């Protein structure tokens, strides 16, 4: 995602991926809004940090962004986190407080059994 502005998902391509059995991930709630307007048979999962403060700690700990970019990402995150509480928007909310547990939950929801 471009944190300077929302980037819409390439939904026509995603429809082709769905037919091919591929998993498509949209990493922004605003992008999910666009996908909901398509005919895709989608599962909507929100992967949330344990808290806004923990998100900031993690982003700062990476040391990959300057202060301005970090502030932009954190401001965008506030809007994204608000979607977590939108009734009926997400099929599942996963709190990423333990990466192995979060991955297992994500896999159980998103990866079809073979």
Task: Give your account of this protein's structure.
Helix content is 50%, strand content 7%. The protein is mainly alpha-helical and 114 residues long. It has one domain (11-110): Rossmann fold (3-Layer(aba) Sandwich), CATH 3.40.50. It has a two-stranded parallel sheet with strand order 1-2. Helix 3 (52-62) runs antiparallel to helix 4. The protein is globular, with a radius of gyration of 15 Å. Residues 1-10 have low confidence and may be disordered.
What tags apply to this protein structure?
single chain, Rossmann fold, mainly alpha, globular
Calculate the terminal CA-CA distance, rounded to whole Å: 31 Å
Molecular shape: globular
Give the CATH architecture. 3-Layer(aba) Sandwich
**CATH level 1 class label:** Alpha Beta
% residues in beta strands: 5-15%
Q: What class, by secondary structure content?
A: mainly alpha
Major sheet characteristics: 2 strands, parallel
Strand order of the largest sheet: 1-2
> What order do the SSEs take from the amino end to the carboxyl end, as H and E?
HHEHHEH
Task: Give the number of helices.
Answer: 5
Extract low-pLDDT stretches: 1-10
């Amino acid at each position: 995602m471009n944190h300077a502005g929302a980037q819409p998902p390439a939904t026509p391509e995603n429809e082709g991926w769905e037919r091919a059995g591929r998993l498509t991930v949209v990493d922004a709630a605003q992008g999910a809004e666009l996908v909901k307007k398509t005919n895709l048979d989608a599962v909507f999962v929100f992967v949330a940090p344990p808290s806004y403060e923990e998100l900031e700690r993690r982003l700062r700990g990476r040391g990959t962004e300057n202060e301005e970019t970090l502030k932009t990402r954190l401001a965008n995150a506030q809007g994204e986190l608000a979607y977590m509480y939108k009734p009926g928007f997400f099929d599942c909310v996963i709190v990423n407080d333990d990466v192995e547990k979060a991955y297992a939950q994500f896999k159980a929801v998103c990866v079809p059994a073979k």
